[in-house]
Specification:
EC number: 2.1.1.77
Structural class: mainly alpha
Helix content: 25-40%
Shape: globular
Strand order of the largest sheet: 1-2
Number of strands: 2
Strand content: 5-15%
Subcellular location: Cytoplasm
Number of helices: 3
Largest sheet: 2 strands, antiparallel
Pfam family, one: PCMT
Family: Belongs to the methyltransferase superfamily. L-isoaspartyl/D-aspartyl protein methyltransferase family.
Keywords: Cytoplasm, Methyltransferase, S-adenosyl-L-methionine, Transferase
């Protein structure tokens, strides 16, 4: 599966939705604009990849709601050079 202009456009729409919900950290918004969520989902559910909602994926896991991830990340106030240990937040 590829990352096409269509996917990039869908990510930009998702960024606009998250921004409208109050996320202001440009680094967080930039990260969301770059992550190809569709590559982490079954190809049969591509229409759901860039919606602002959690969605079931393999192994009884879910891919998190983008706003939730953005909100949590913004709260961390990560600065350049900071190190973050991520535990138990992924499916693999």
């Amino acid at each position: 599966m590829k990352d096409t202009f269509k996917h990039k456009g869908l990510r930009q729409q998702l960024v606009a939705i998250i921004k409208n919900k109050g996320i202001t950290d440009e680094r967080v918004l930039k990260a969301i604009s770059k992550v190809p969520r569709h590559l982490f989902m079954d190809s049969g559910f591509l229409d759901h990849a860039y919606q602002d909602k959690a969605f079931p994926i393999a192994a009884d896991q879910t891919i998190s709601q983008p706003y939730t991830v953005a909100y949590q990340t913004e709260l961390l106030q990560v600065k350049k050079g900071d190190k973050v240990l991520e535990i138990g937040t992924g499916s693999g």
